[in-house]
Amino acid sequence: MILILQSLWNRSLTDNLVKGAEDFLRSQDLRTRVIQVPGALELPLALKWALEADQKKEIQGAVACGVVIKGDTYHFEMVANESSRGLSDLSLQFGIPVGHAVLATYDISQAIARSQGEQNKGLEAAKAVNEMIKLKRAI
């Protein structure tokens, strides 16, 4: 199973990221489960809880979907950097691929472009997770 984590901040955009990830993973006959969290900073903790609760080791990978858009303060950098760091740390700690579909954009138009169609970063992150799962099996 591939866990998809969705930040509900900027939900219309994260809905698109989740859809891109889900559609691809299902096309690969992979089961998915979506967990929703308030914002991007909550993604790592939710993933940690899910992995710790996964007694049967069913979670093979995860895709984290979020959107952080730059405002007038340093808060943008803190949220984007710390969310990414937390997700990367968990990937290494638990030995599973975690696809980063947490957009950190300078404006809404960049976020829209990266959450739709062929540029959908949820889709791209899901593809990367799938390839890493295959690589782990091959090693």
3D structure, described in words:
With 139 residues, the chain is an alpha/beta fold. It has a single domain, classed as Lumazine/riboflavin synthase (Rossmann fold). Helices cover 52% and strands 21% of the residues. The chain has helices at residues 11-27, 43-53, 75-94, 108-113, 121-138, and strands spanning 2-7, 32-37, 61-69, 98-105. Strands 2-1-3-4 form a four-stranded parallel β-sheet, with helices on both faces.
Compute the number of structural domains.
1
What's the oligomerization state?
A: single chain
Q: In the CATH hierarchy, what is the architecture at level 2?
A: 3-Layer(aba) Sandwich
**SSE ordering:** EHEHEHEHH
End-to-end separation: 20 Å
CATH class: Alpha Beta
Q: Pick out the low-confidence regions.
A: none
The Cα radius of gyration reads: 14 Å
Brief descriptors of the model:
alpha/beta; 139 residues; Rossmann fold; single chain
What's the arrangement of secondary structure elements?
Layout: E1 2-7, H1 11-27, E2 32-37, H2 43-53, E3 61-69, H3 75-94, E4 98-105, H4 108-113, H5 121-138
Parallel strand pairs: 1-2, 1-3, 3-4
Helix pairs in contact: 1-5, 2-3
Give me a quick take on this structure.
This protein is about 50% helix and about 20% strand. The protein is an alpha/beta fold and about 140 residues long.
